[in-house]
Amino acid sequence: MPELKIGLPKGSLQESTFNLMQNAGWEFSIRSRSYYPTCNDPEISAMMARPQEMSRYVERGVMDMAVTGLDWVEENNSDVEVLARLVYAKASRKPVRWVLAVPEDSDFQSVKDLEGKVISTELVDVVKRYLKKNGVNAEVEFSHGATEVKVPHLADAIVDVTETGSSLRANRLRIIDTVQESVTVIVANKAAYRDSWKKAKIDAIVMMLKGALDAKEKVLLKLNVANKNLEEVIKKLPSLHAPTVNKLADPEWTAVETIVDESVVRTLLPQLKDAGGEGIIELPLNKVIP
Questions:
Q1: Which CATH number applies to 96-181: 3.40.50.150, 3.40.190.10, 3.20.14.10, 2.60.40.1180?
Q2: What's the whole-model pTM score?
Q3: Does residue 239 carry a pLDDT above 80?
Q4: Counting C-beta atoms within 10 Å of the first and last residue's C-beta, which end of the chain has fewer, N or C?
């Protein structure tokens, strides 16, 4: 039986990635301290690794495909196929930011003020390229973790990843620039992606993951409306293309359904009710495939 080797992230992205995979149709389970999850698809074998290392293993062919961060692909300068950008992180569906931060009571106001200073980060090569682009000569030291505590005694500034900035503020740090944004990506080994069976399998996984991710922020609305109010109701409805409209047993009434962003439901439903919609129901979605 052919086999696809998948790399899954160990650490902060683990839970959200496992949940997304499950919503897409692939359920992984793992024992404590194991790095080899089992999958409900016998054609898949999985291995877990830190996102920092993942793209290197994909480039070398240890893994056929993997879920990792775009930041680490760029840090490793890995020669891999980037197949999809999935905008989700540990706590939100937003890109994460690598930011340049300094002590809140320091005089530093921009990267130019760090000429000759020491910057601590895990993203060493990306930061070096960032400094070169800005014409700044500074020493970049690799941080093995707990980067926020390196300033002011061990470094003058840090470049660290953040979703909300709350951890930086808690450590009395002030952001002075964004070095880069990053999202979760699906990458594939170039040779594996030229294999017809593996390519078809990888493309199917990518499609289903994107569909599951898109579904997280959308719902299905269904309602009934008298024909005399149909035009006004339809004007209120956003949809992927156009709402589905079906006649009911009563010729004076019509059933309408459409997919909308969940964020608009709280304002949309009262508008639909006022326009003549009745029997309105909201249903969650597992996948949305355009």
A1: 3.40.190.10
A2: 0.85
A3: no
A4: N
- Rounded CA gap, 163 and 86, in Å? 15
Say whether pLDDT at 141 is over 90. yes
Q: Is the confidence at residue 183, as pLDDT, over 70?
A: yes
- Mean pLDDT, rounded, of the chain: 93
Indicate whether 67 pLDDT > 90: yes
| Residue where the block lists tokens 């890995």 | 78
Predicted confidence (pLDDT) per residue in 209-218, tens digit: 999 998 988 9
pLDDT of 241 > 70? The answer is no
Domains 4-91+184-215 and 96-181 share a fold: yes
Distance, in Å, from the CA atom of 139 to the CA atom of 240, rounded to the nearest integer, reads: 50
Q: What is the CATH number of domain 218-284?
A: 3.30.70.120
The CATH label, of 3.40.190.10, 3.90.960.10, 3.90.1720.10, 3.90.1150.10, for the domain at 4-91+184-215 is: 3.40.190.10
pLDDT of residue 60 exceeding 80, the answer is yes
